[in-house]
Backbone:
């Protein structure tokens, strides 16, 4: 079975632009969570999607939005990019929402640089 | 609110020496605790997790961690470090809405 994949691996954007990051969850996983990892810090929870519905959100502004598709793949959209949005964006998929009974599997991340 | 503190942003050990990475948590409810490892340019991999069963949890690659409620700690140990253990290690607690709250990480350096 394939693991969690993310695209693109790297990208550079200019302040004020918009970006879409993509995540393909592991086969059979219905839950996707997104995290932002700034340089030298631990990941911070952005939001989680369960069966195409948002299922929890961290302390991020509304310009961070997402989608989950019927095949459980997911997108993270960020509008009006700011310099502080430069980070590694990780997605993780799991078989259920709790991530306790079933492990969250992380993708390799997308490195976003905002100039 | 739950939180995690990892003491020491960098830990350096000799190959074959004991590895000890410290994690203290704050939680108002019985916690679910996790240790993840991150190798350069890769995502996070679960090493082990505590879910209120045995207090001594064994994980992959010879790592283990002990949950100590009285000390609110969940330190990660490995008896003998290997060069391949060099990586960033993150302790995390799961909150009541099932999101992971991570510490700031500890970079483990292994000297030959």
Residues:
């Amino acid at each position: 079975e394939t693991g969690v994949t993310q695209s693109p691996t790297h990208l550079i954007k200019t302040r004020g632009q918009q970006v879409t990051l993509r995540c393909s969850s592991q086969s059979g996983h219905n839950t996707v969570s997104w995290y932002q990892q700034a340089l030298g810090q631990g990941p911070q929870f952005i939001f989680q999607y369960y069966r195409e519905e948002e299922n929890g959100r961290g302390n991020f502004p509304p310009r961070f939005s997402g989608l989950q598709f019927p095949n459980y793949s997911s997108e993270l959209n960020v509008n009006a990019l700011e310099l502080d949005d430069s980070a590694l964006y990780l997605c993780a998929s799991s078989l259920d929402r709790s991530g306790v009974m079933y492990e969250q599997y992380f993708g390799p991340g997308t490195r976003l640089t905002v100039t | 609110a739950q939180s995690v503190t990892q003491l020491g942003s960098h830990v350096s050990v000799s190959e074959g020496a004991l590895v000890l990475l410290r994690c203290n948590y704050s939680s108002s409810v019985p916690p679910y605790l996790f240790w993840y490892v991150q190798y350069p340019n890769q995502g996070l991999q679960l090493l082990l997790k505590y879910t209120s069963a045995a207090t001594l949890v064994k994980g992959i690659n010879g790592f283990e961690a002990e949950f100590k409620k009285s000390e609110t700690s969940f330190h990660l140990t490995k008896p003998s470090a290997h060069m391949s253990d060099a990586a960033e290690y993150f302790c995390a607690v799961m909150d009541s809405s099932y999101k992971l709250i991570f510490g700031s990480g500890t970079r483990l350096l292994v000297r030959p």
Summary: The mean pLDDT of chain B is 92. The first strand of chain B starts at residue 3 and ends at 7.
